[in-house]
Design brief:
The protein is of the alpha+beta class. 32% of the residues lie in helices and 17% in strands. Helix 2 runs antiparallel to helix 4.
Length: 376
């Protein structure tokens, strides 16, 4: 998702003022909200596994740095690193995501074509913008599916997106019915090319383009994330060169067999990313993308060698934010309402005055007043 964060702006991580005006939590009781969070996660994961043919597997909390298994994101973010006490020369990293590890897992578990795996991933992103939709703590369903070489096409990508979106739609229907929330998602998702959006809105920022298309369609798969425009600037947003295929030309004239699932968030009045996904690089595509990004040295890593020599299967995969999905489903103004994290203390104090309960950071001012009025 194109960022909302403006570094240097005071209290830049706060939700829009309009979202905070007269804000009322959809579920004021904290323990009831925790029950709702579990219901959302359980319901969605079951829908996802059924629709995409996935099996839940265990996930690593850290990876060896020289394996090349960690997701490099945009290539500039710092991973949280440490060394075991008795092995000081061993460098371990908390992964940003399991984008590459999952592809190896399909090989490790000998998963046949047409089936895949999903993990309950936990990670840290020390350099992420900390705002009302981003946290240093990452929790997501990291999934990957073994596909045939013939499936590396737009039709297979779109069919998979529809299956995932149905899991999202069906989950919203169930959660809204149970907790008295108005559902907002359309039954179908709309496919849009980032290349077309740039032509239609050449002077808009990536975030502005996302807002325009999401406000119109309410649920969008924005195809073609990563790579550069002719002027050398990012086409839409950054993507690492060694997992998603953002280079292959599609029949519509656009480039990339990947994209983001975006929905319109009525409370925040903005586009809202729920998932980043795509058909993964073939050996040939990865070689070209590494060269374009000047990262050919990665080919010496274990994971990259396994891909280049054909050990790793052809795949499609992605990540679906757990806290992000819960924030959307419960119409929360801040991601800290659905996950424990660290946030700007000044912003936390402001949020308390608007009935926004950041988990683990004390009760909102209005709640404390009502408790005092009750004589407790």
């Amino acid at each position: 998702m194109a960022t909302n964060f403006s570094r240097g702006t005071p209290l830049a991580g706060l939700p829009p003022k309009e979202a905070l005006e007269n804000y009322e939590p959809s579920i004021p009781c904290l323990i009831t909200k925790e029950e709702a969070l579990l219901t959302i996660k359980t319901t969605f994961e079951n829908n996802l596994k059924k629709n995409v043919n996935l099996t839940r597997v265990s996930a690593p909390l850290f990876l060896q740095k020289d394996s090349g298994f960690n997701d490099n994101l945009n290539g500039v973010e710092r991973p949280a690193t440490f060394a075991p006490r008795d092995f000081p020369d061993t460098h371990l990293e908390v992964p940003f995501s399991l984008a590459k590890w999952k592809r190896w897992a399909l090989h490790y578990y000998a998963v046949e074509a047409g089936k895949g795996v999903v993990t309950d991933f936990r990670g840290l992103r020390c350099d992420d913008d900390v705002d009302f939709t981003h946290s240093l703590y990452v929790d997501q369903w990291d999934w990957e599916k073994h596909i045939d070489l013939a499936d590396r096409n737009v039709e297979y990508l779109q069919a998979t997106v529809k299956s995932i979106y149905k899991a999202i739609y069906d989950t919203e229907q169930e959660i809204c019915a149970k907790y008295g929330i108005e559902p907002v998602l359309p039954q179908e998702i709309t496919f849009v090319s980032s290349d077309d959006l740039i032509k239609q809105h050449p002077h808009a920022t990536p975030k502005e383009r996302e807002n325009i298309v999401c406000k119109e369609h309410k649920a969008v798969f924005l195809m073609g994330i990563g790579g550069l425009k002719a002027d050398g600037t990012l086409r839409h947003d950054g993507r690492a060169p060694d997992y998603d295929d953002w280079l292959t030309e599609r029949p519509d004239g656009g480039f990339g067999l990947n994209g983001d699932i975006l929905v319109w968030n009525p409370l925040l009045n903005m586009s809202f990313e729920l998932s980043s996904m795509g058909i993964r690089v073939s050996p040939e595509v990865m070689d070209r993308q590494l060269e374009l990004c000047k990262c050919l040295e990665r080919k010496k890593f274990v994971w990259h060698s396994m891909l280049m020599d054909g050990t790793l299967p052809q795949t499609i995969g992605g990540g679906i934010g757990q806290s992000r999905l819960c924030q959307f489903m419960l119409r929360c103004a801040h991601i800290g309402e659905v996950q424990y994290g660290w946030y700007n203390p000044e912003e936390v104090e402001v949020l308390k005055g608007h009935k926004v309960q950041i988990l683990g950071h004390g009760l909102p001012f209005h709640h404390r007043l009502s408790t005092l009025d009750d004589g407790n």
